[in-house]
Specification:
By secondary structure, the protein is α+β, with helices and mostly antiparallel strands. It contains two helices and five strands.
Length: 95
Amino acid sequence: MARKVPRPFAYSWGSGRIVEEATAPNEFYEPALQLLVVEGGEHDGEEHLRFCFYSPGGSFQRHPLVVNREDIAELRRALGETPRIRAMLRELAGE
């Protein structure tokens, strides 16, 4: 399910916009990698990478993201549209 970006997010420590999202929907859940940009407050301008998932009906789930190799392959394809997320993942991998 393609969701519109940018769109808002909010945590107790700050809020802002989801500006990029790579997803790999399947019949059971929808893994997602999201680039969050904080707007305002002490974290203003910070970029955060969220690993999350949605239910098949599109509801955000507050549980750990667990993916299999098929999900990884689909997420890799989706990352083709998200250059800033790809750059953060390269940093994470030490590349």
